[in-house]
Amino acid sequence: MKFRRLVSVLAAAGAAVMIATGPAAAFAPPYDDLPTGPYPQPADVDVPKRGCAATLSDPTNATGSIPAIQVIYAWHDGGGNNYAAHVEKIAKIVDRMDWALDESTNYDQHINFSCRSGYDTSTYSGYAQALVVPEKIENGVIGGKTLTGVVAADLAAAGYDVPNRRYLVFEDFNGTAEAMYDTLANGGTGSGIGVAVSGGWGGNMLHELLHLGHADYVDHSKVTETPDVLSYPDVMSNPSFDWQLDHNFNNYYDPSETTATFYTDNYSDTRKVNVATWPFFTTPTCCDVGYSNDLLTAQERTIEAEAPYGYPSGFGTSGGGWMQVTPPGPDAATSARYYDGRRSLTMNVQSHADGFVSVTRKPAVTAGQRYKFWAWLTTSTSGNIRLRLSWYNSSNTLLSTSDSSLYGLTSSWAEYSVSAVAPANAASVQLSVMSPSGQTFAYQLDALQLNHCNNGKTTDGCRLPG
Ligand SMILES: [Zn+2]
């Protein structure tokens, strides 16, 4: 059997491994497997009630309804039906998933949930019962692991096979945390349904749901703009700890530029995605207060528009050096081929003068407020750079510059940053990487970001590094 499975990194790390219980023992869902970061999370009582985006008298008959997520409580005879005991907690986790999506960025965006009619949704109990539908998995394995294909086949047979639904399944038994499109092409039973399942009821429910944000799936092997960087606050890399979605707007989720797309898996896979456009979510609208924001365009962040050796649109150089889209080379040096961010910018530094590579466009800023410029850099040799913020007034006259400390680049990609308050009369800012004169080397630049540090979510008003 070759289902195209997406096993959670939780499972890979062992954290989501379900212990098989004896036939008579009830499975105990790990309720408390909820992320606590990357910024302070509200108590259950303070999590907003998302509510129902669509309400149907029969949730298996959703033809003509808007695209929406159907939440399922799945059980079998091994542990019995504990729906009444769990339903409100499941609804609260679902509400928290919606809150996490909205709070991840300064865009307003929510999950469309499907509900069934017949319950008083003005009470939380009634809302929870409308939102969460119980389903017995007839072929569930008592005393062993019930595979996701068995769950998908059961749901489809019960009528949960509507194309405008994705199924978010809280398993009350030993299963696998994963997401799957149950198609013949994927080696499945052919029901075609998209299911996100887990017996760990926490951050991995959102993690698995996001895997379904593409017509096939969204992988997480590419969840980095730069190679070998996976340990940062993101629900796709650390679902036990962090609710955050793609804080750099450059891997799979960019609500600020919904025409931008990002590779969803490693080379040679060429599928691209922007989960912010998933029709099972509401359309993202700017602006509210949220954890991440970014003032750059996708091209300015990712340098993906031109082919290797080409001239990176949106950038310019001055002084000692010339730039190109990084030519083919070792994967670790090029941010290329085998990772998302398959292209990067190479600056070929010349010694006769300070060299600058700059984002041509100057994003608007507000005087007196703090901004932070991040970028990822590496070199195959060695050399020093600074990051620079150049502040301009409304007449496009340079007012002042704010430089980072001098950074010695290494053969590993690393994130560097500079943060400063926009001076009086500042109206725009230009981002540059400066290489002091006297050096001859080449460096690679990728994953740029400019944050407006007013989001109120982190200590310094900007996202945490990494
Ligand atoms: Zn996963």
Automatic annotation (TrEMBL):
It comes from the Bacteria. Keywords: Signal. InterPro entries: Galactose-bd-like_sf (IPR008979). This is CBM-cenC domain-containing protein. It comes from Sphaerisporangium rubeum. Residues 1-26 form the signal peptide.
